[in-house]
Amino acid sequence: MMKVRATLVILLAFAAVAAAQDAPPTRRWYKGNTHTHTLNSDGDSTPDEVVRWYREHNYDFLVLTDHNFLTSVDGLNALHAADEKFLVIRGEEVSDWFGKKPIHVNGLNVQRLVKPQGGTSVADVLQRNVDAVREASGVPHINHPNYGWAISAEDLSKIERDRLFEIYNGHPLVNNMGGGGAPSMEEVWDILLTGGKLLYGIAVDDAHHFKRPWSADAARPGQGWVVVRAEKLAAPELLAAMERGDFYASTGVEITEVSVSARSFRISIKASGDTKYRTTYIGRGGAILQTALTNESEYLVRGDEGYVRARVVDSNGKTAWLQPVMIVKK
Ligand SMILES: [Zn+2]
Ligand SMILES: [Zn+2]
Questions:
Q1: Which ligand is nearest to the CA of 142?
Q2: How far is the CA of 59 from the centre of ligand 2 (A)?
Q3: Between these two residues, 106 and 74, which has the higher pLDDT value?
């Protein structure tokens, strides 16, 4: 019988395992939103009001990302984070076009304003803006690819120096679910991963409207977020953890523990009321590898999956997306 030996390329876990062998750093989960607007672009509230909303709703950090505008955060941090329990991170939504297609790239913790760079194709505009964010010492993430049906899986597969993209955006007009022959963001993710392109999926609010929470066409806060495992509540630590995939994205499901080793993938879900949960482990081509109906589950790696990722959906439709690990067969 042939023994298949699998080597996991675990961009998420290797760093964690290596670090744990030296001196185990204490890591905590931090909840944050990396995409929000204020009156400095087309939001309806002041930066102070926006920060207050997130702080009062038990978030740990927030990135303010106005369109082509760098909202100052120094005063906000002095006002809201004096006790170091809440962090506002400077950011920008670099908002560009290719023809009539909107191409938006967030720059998290950029050190200066990044102007839209333009370009000769969708992929070129994306790449130039991603690179401009990096040059400003920021961390890029590619926003709402299905908004305006602007960015295809093929475009995304060409982009370098970017690790993050939005698989869920809370704005009501961004076509997260695909349709009419266009793939959903999760289908796009599986296309990319199957092609060997490792991107991590984030969920964001893209909040614009804090003053009319009853309105169905408002882009409201509290729709999608990330929960990041980091040593401390500081921008470099949080963003480095995101770029190594040490986080999950959520629209409401809370995960208490994720553990990934060369052999298995283990998840614990936090129970809430009488809500029930279904965890799906997914591999190459979007294939379902295993379904678990318990709040704790484990997937044993075979070695030929290509990649493994997991999604948890609860009985009220809330979802958590765990980050993929690539599996390379030896
Ligand atoms: Zn946008
Ligand atoms: Zn936006």
A1: 1
A2: 19
A3: 106
